[in-house]
Amino acid sequence: MSSIATGDEISEAEIRLLNDEDVVPRSVDFKGRPAVRAKTGCWKSSAFIIGGGVAERLSYYGISSNLVSYLSGALGQPTATAAAELNAWFGASSLLPILGGFLADSFTGRFRMIIVSCLLYILYLLVHNTKLPYSGIWDNVGGQGLSFLTLSAFLSSSSSRCKPAANTLGCSPPDQFQILFFFFSLYLVAIAQGGLTPCLQAFGADQFEDEDEYECKAKSSFFNWWTCFYAGGILVPLFILTYIQENVSWVLGFGIPAIVMLLHYFCSCMEVRLIDFV
């Protein structure tokens, strides 16, 4: 992966003051200077990346684990139609990481791809959770992917409340705009996870230098901790967020992943000084 920034290069005098053991081979910091082992890489940066994996899985499964109920309930879709739409979305979500990995390795670099994908997730979640009037939606929207989903949930829940009909009580289903808005938001998440999934773990492994004995051993531990926390990021939405969505509020159920992903985005921006760029 190419460095994220070219920046001012370290002077020759400063480089000579550094021992060979202090500089990480073939790595630079966020300003394009030789990476110093004591200040960048290893667990200092990889711990944040593990947190990113947890946030991504919590957001993805917080959305996907209960989608059939949302489609057949809040959006009024027949169960068979909801299942078919969910399968199509899962298929797209499974294929897009191939494209995301190719773009990251060939053009953007992993860190840029991670940042852009986080923004798409946040866009989908926050707007999805914002309680905005239907008539003024385009004047007020200001977030990214997970934001759109939250707004979509609010619009659906507010428009599908039961209203008295002529001879009976019925519920007015969401209109076509709300359904299209929801699926636009949903596929925005598929694109976002397509960028995050192939990059996060590989970018975490980049923080460990194979030629250093300690870091080489630590890399094995990184994969163990990654798997452990990654699984935790899947279990939390399955056991907690689905309950919140079904029994408390769809807006809150989609809003929690939005907050988690927003925190990860800010942490990613703060941790940039600790990262080795290979």
TrEMBL record:
Membrane-crossing segments per the record: 86-104, 111-127, 179-203, 223-244, 250-267
What topology does it adopt in the membrane?
Multi-pass membrane protein
Superkingdom, natural source: Eukaryota
Key words, A-Z: Membrane, Transmembrane, Transmembrane helix
Extract one GO molecular function annotation from the record: transmembrane transporter activity
Q: Does the keyword Transmembrane apply?
A: yes
Its subcellular locations are:
Membrane
Pfam families, per the entry: PTR2
The similarity annotation says:
Belongs to the major facilitator superfamily. Proton-dependent oligopeptide transporter (POT/PTR) (TC 2.A.17) family.
Name under which the protein is recorded: Protein NRT1/ PTR FAMILY 5.10
Q: Which organism is it from?
A: Sesamum angustifolium
